[in-house]
Design the sequence.
C-alpha cells in the first residue's frame, strides 16, 4: 500500500511555542500523532521543512511513490508558484 504524504511547511516545527494564543498548544509531534491515529493501518510519510526546495522534492517523491498528498505549505501558500506547479503534477 502506497503511503499518504503529509507535508508541512515553514515554522510549523514551532507549533506549541509560537504564539500559542493564536495557534494553540499542540506541537508538530501532536499533529503527527493525530494523523497516524486517523490513518490507522494506512502508511503515512509525515514531514516538515522550512525549505521550499525540500518540500518540492518531497512532492516529486509523492508523485512517484505515494497514494496522496496532504499539505500545509504555511507561508508558501501565498508565495510559492513552484510548489503549486509541483502539486499540479500529482
Sequence:
Amino acid at each position: 500500500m502506497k503511503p499518504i504524504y503529509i507535508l508541512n511547511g515553514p515554522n510549523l516545527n514551532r507549533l506549541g511555542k509560537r504564539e500559542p494564543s493564536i495557534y494553540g498548544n499542540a506541537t508538530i509531534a501532536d499533529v503527527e500523532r493525530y494523523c497516524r491515529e486517523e490513518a490507522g493501518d494506512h502508511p503515512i510519510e509525515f514531514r516538515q521543512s522550512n525549505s521550499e526546495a525540500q518540500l518540492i522534492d518531497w512532492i516529486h517523491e509523492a508523485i512517484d511513490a505515494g497514494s496522496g498528498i496532504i499539505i500545509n505549505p504555511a507561508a508558501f501558500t501565498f508565495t510559492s508558484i513552484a510548489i503549486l506547479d509541483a502539486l499540479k503534477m500529482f
The domain at 4-88 is CATH 3.40.50.9100 (Rossmann fold). Strands lie at 4-8, 44-48, 68-72.
